[in-house]
Write a structure and sequence with these properties.
Elements: H1 3-13, E1 24-29, E2 32-38, E3 43-48, H2 55-70, E4 74-79, H3 80-85, H4 87-103, H5 114-124
Parallel strand pairs: 3-4
Antiparallel strand pairs: 1-2, 2-3
Length: 128
């Protein structure tokens, strides 16, 4: 865990400090490892160091974010500098996401998830 990740974890995300939501760190999601994830909020937080400014790493980040969005997650990225030098703005941005989520939850993941299969099963057995 980087210094910025440790700072965000200790002062913002650990022990339900952010609006009483539970976050996990370094969790697998699809083919990736998310820096931080809140399943209830469908939110992934990524902390990007210097290497993420390089073109090839930046391009991989775009693919990763798109893949995670296709799995039904919102991805918010912060730089190490943002976390270490402006943590209050990081918190404001996360609180704004939570406020938006609570007032208008995101759509469910794309088709192919268990909900879609459950719906197809109900139709197959003429339950609905």
């Amino acid at each position: 865990m980087t210094k910025a990740e440790a700072c965000l974890w200790k002062y913002v995300l650990k022990a339900k400090k952010l609006n009483d939501y539970s976050f996990r760190r370094q969790r697998p999601v699809g083919n990736y490892i998310a820096d931080f994830i809140c399943f209830e909020l469908r939110l992934i937080i990524e902390i990007d160091g210097y290497s993420h400014t390089l073109d090839d790493v930046c391009n991989k980040d775009v693919v990763k974010s798109n893949d995670l969005k296709n799995l039904g997650y919102e991805v918010i990225r912060f730089t190490d500098a943002e976390v270490l030098n402006d943590i209050s703005n990081v918190i404001r941005r996360l609180e704004a996401y939570i406020n938006d989520f609570e007032n208008c939850p995101p759509l469910p993941p794309p088709t192919g998830d268990s909900t879609d299969k459950h719906f197809k099963t109900l139709i197959m057995y003429n339950i609905i």
